[in-house]
Amino acid sequence: MPAAPRPRRSGASAPAAEGAGAGEPALRVLRRFRLVFNAVKTHFQQVEKEAGIGGAQLWALSVIGASPEIGVKALAHAMDIHQATASNLVKALVGAQLVAAERNAVDRRTVQLRLRPAGARALRRAPGPFAGVLPKALATLDPGTLRRLDKDLATLIIAIQADAAAATLGRLAQPAAGRGTSCAGS
């Protein structure tokens, strides 16, 4: 006996819900987004499993390791996140004794960061890329592809009425325990 057709969920457009005709390109693109999101998620799960810290924290560690004595403001700039988010990441890393934060001798208002031995060990254990698989992949694309992708994603962002302020890691990586991962740096 053939299976009864599934009822359509509310909010789904007819072509997308039916999976045929005009909905076919939309479904293919949706599948591609799922592949991207799943690759990012899998990478960050692997990072947490192997390094014992979240992806955003690992990225911050790698930036600090590459630029000893970097300040919180420069760290925020390097990661393209809000300074408050960088401060939260630093607090979690200092609390976990992965990073040392010392006041600058000249300007006591600023803090200089450096890896502690445990932070260096976490970096050695972690799978790369430290900034995440998405930034690495985007860096390999040619300028024309990036321009098209930027333009098309801007159109999509308008269509879903996304909050442009949520585009930075700052809105995504502030969990209570400080161990969150984010698609922004994935």
Question: What does it look like?
Answer:
There is one protein chain. Helices cover 54% and strands 5% of the residues. The chain has a domain at 42-171: Orthogonal Bundle (Arc Repressor Mutant, subunit A). Helix 3 (55-66) crosses helix 5 (83-95), helix 3 crosses helix 6 (117-125) and helix 4 (72-79) crosses helix 5. The N and C termini lie far apart (46 Å). The chain is built from eight helices and two strands, in the order αααααββααα. The chain is mainly alpha-helical and 186 residues long. Strands 1-2 form a two-stranded antiparallel ribbon.
Question: Key terms for this structure?
Answer:
globular, 2 strands, two-stranded antiparallel sheet, Arc Repressor Mutant, subunit A, disordered C terminus
Globally, the shape reads: globular
Mean pLDDT: 79
Which CATH architecture of the domain at 42-171 would you pick?
Answer: Orthogonal Bundle
Helix/strand/pairing category: mainly alpha
Strand order of the biggest β-sheet = 1-2
Percentage of residues in helical conformation: 40-55%
Q: Would you give the CATH topology of the domain at 42-171?
A: Arc Repressor Mutant, subunit A
Order of helices and strands: HHHHHEEHHH
